Amino acid sequence: MGRPDLSRRRLLAAAGGLTVAGSFGFAALGTGADALASGADTRVRYWNLFSGGDGYNMIAMLDAFRADHPGIDVKDSTLQWGSPFYTKLAMAAAGNRAPDLGVMHMGRVTGFSPGRLLDPWDVRLLAKYGVREADFTPALWKRGIVDGKLYALPLDIHVQLCFYRKDVLKKAGLLGADGRMVPVTSTDEWFDVLKEAKKAKKKGLQTLGLHANDQNFMWWFFVAFYTQLGGTYFNDAATEVTFDTDKATEVLEFLRRHVTDGYSTAGAADGEQFINGAPFTWEGNWSVPVFSGAELDYGATPLPPVFGEQATHAESHAFVLPHQSERGGATNEAAHQLAAYVVQHAQQWAAGGHIPAYTPTLSTAAYKKLNPQNEYASAMDHQATEPKVWFAGSTGILAQRVGPIVVSSTMGSAKPEAAARRMKGMLTELLASKNPMDGRTAAQGGAVA
Q1: Closest by alpha carbon to 341, among 68, 42, 40, 28?
Q2: DSSP β-bridge partners for residue 161
């Protein structure tokens, strides 16, 4: 995910990530053992995909839960991030060997055959432990709803951001009186900002880290700016492609211009260049601990609303209940209790750059003191997400198939208008394809709430 020099996985590994081990391909991060912990009468088996800095933050929250709830033994295990995690979780759910609690990217929930491989949450139990629909933004809560039932309880949103060096922008006259980057509301204003920043940067550095040859980043950026233009992908019934090639071409031309005008260098070590003094880089919020650790004078804002409407690409981690044929009783209630606790105590999670999904956390004095998190928390209100279909979501087929097409345009091997037509053709092909989890197309899967 991302370029090798500053990809999310590499960043987390650099922060002390754990290797994947064991015959089933996972390493236990917690203190669970075969026997129940002393004083416990209920065990919750919990699988997640958090390594490195995210992993240690999650452990801290789990340890706090253990201290507050000695009657519940949490046996937590971290599996290999990406497709291996989802494959093993699906196999465990299909074979009735699923853990009591799991984590997924919200965009992958629809494709995970809710009702077959996932069990719905008992919203009454969640409310009993202090978590209610009113505690989340409506759009985020709705993403976890399939066929009228809640299948994903949001933990956070993680977004693509415009990181900027305050020292360089101050020299270029691009900082406002509040010490933040001057607002940008059009493509012309954005390229004017880049032009001035380029004059103030150190020689040998690019102006903007764009990850121009990375299929994941380029897809995420496309989603953000296409959403700003009001672009859609499919109709509500997921039976028709509504992709607008004119709007797509406009976005692709915008992305391509960063390379042709000399502001971005394909293949550059974007994160390292930013640390060394490049004015801008577009990265995920997971870069916050790295840039803060480097003691940079920097800020971070959602991607600039160059097409008028604010929208920045967002994905979410969410708690799920992998299917169990006999789910219920004390263990199921403890799983609800654990998930509710972590969601409500996500201040630790916010330190890793993520925006807590539980909105009461955002209004606390402790969160408001986090910098630059407090600058981009508004992204919660204008999330640009992938369409709600089975082939979308983090590491999903959609990004694998369409991302390279975006790259071909940005890198100049295809003209933007031709790339836009290819994207529409691929969307048409994917819409007609069947989900290998249940053999149904998007239109047949009941994906629309």
Answers
A1: 68
A2: 283, 302
Where would I find the H helices in 95-214?
Answer: 123-128, 138-143, 166-172, 187-200
In angstroms, the CA 223 to CA 313 distance is 6
pLDDT higher than 60, residue 144: yes
Quote the pLDDT of residue 118: 95
- Are the C-beta atoms of 113 and 91 separated by less than 8 Å? no
Beta bridge pairs of residue 318? 104, 154
Residue 212: CB atoms within 10 Å: 26
b/e per residue 10-41 (b: at least 16 CB within 10 A): bbbeebebbebeeeeebeebbebeeeebeebe
Q: Residue 410: helix, strand or coil by DSSP?
A: helix
In this structure, what token pair is assigned to residue 154?
Answer: 């949001």
The C-alpha atoms of residue 348 and residue 358 are separated, in whole angstroms, by 13
- Position with higher pLDDT, 4 vs 180: 180
What is the number of helices (H) and of strands (E) in the chain? 18, 16
pLDDT of residue 408: 98
Task: Please give the Cα distance from 5 to 267 (Å, whole number).
Answer: 10
DSSP codes, 55-67 = HHHHHHHHHHHHH
pLDDT interval class at 113 (50, 70, 90): confident
Average pLDDT over residues 428-445: 91
Question: What's the angle, vertex CA 105, arms to CA 338 and CA 288, rounded to 5?
Answer: 90
Rounded Cα distance between 379 and 434, Å, is 33
Q: What angle do CA 56, 77, 57 make, to 5 degrees?
A: 15
Six token digits for residue 270: 């974007």
CB-based contact 339:359 (threshold 8 Å): no
Q: What is the mean pLDDT of residues 177-193?
A: 97
Whole-number percent of the chain with pLDDT over 70: 91
> Phi and psi of 275, rounded to 5°?
-60, -35
pTM of this structure: 0.89
- Rounded to 10 deg, the angle between the 397-410 and 416-432 helix axes is 170
